[in-house]
Amino acid sequence: MSTTSRTDTTTDVGTFTIRPLDPIQDAELLHGWVTHPKAAFWMMQEARLHDVERAYMAIAASEYHDAFLGSLDGEPVFLMERYDPAHVELVGLYEPAPGDVGMHFLVAPADTPVHGFTRAVITAVMEHLFADPTAARVVVEPDVRNTAVHALNEAVGFVPVREIEKPEKRALLSFCTRERFERAAGVTV
Predict the structure, then answer these.
(1) Contacts made by residues 108-115, CB under 8 angstroms, sequence distance 24+
(2) Mean pLDDT computed over 34-59
(3) pTM score, two decimals?
(4) Could you tell me what percent of the chain has a pLDDT over 70?
(5) Is the confidence at residue 3, as pLDDT, over 50?
(6) So where does this one cross the membrane (predicted)?
(7) What distance lies between CA 52 and its chain's CA centroid?
(8) What's phi and psi for 133, nearest 5 deg?
């Protein structure tokens, strides 16, 4: 996948900057996020620092998978992964269409939650993905038990399609077209 260098999105909570992840420099920060109890659905609870480095070095080396770090007004606050579902994560589990792009995101744990913050993050993530004119539809596959992310996904235009069985989880396959996102978020990308 082509690595987008950096994008900025201004929201009600501030300006998000999304940049490519540096698997070595950012590993310690990510380790704290992915092993936090609130990140249980990220499935890295028992990861050691070198496990995180290794996982994100593999993503950085992949032709079909990218990782990005999102900051709010200069402070890192979320992780985003973009992947080609025809080659990663969903191979054989659905029929990919031209312009499909897969996505994962993780918001950093916060001591004081900010109302609307996670929705602002997913909006910035979706704008980043749709900034690529070849992206026609975003594909996600969160754990079926993660009802909070299902509601969030639906709020930005995702439509659940069906449950699928992945090696590590039972997932809810959902799609969001550019048009559905623009309608739901009230933006044009």
Answers:
(1) 108/33, 108/76, 108/77, 108/78, 108/79, 109/32, 109/33, 109/36, 109/38, 109/39, 114/13
(2) 94
(3) 0.91
(4) 94
(5) no
(6) none
(7) 16
(8) -65, -15
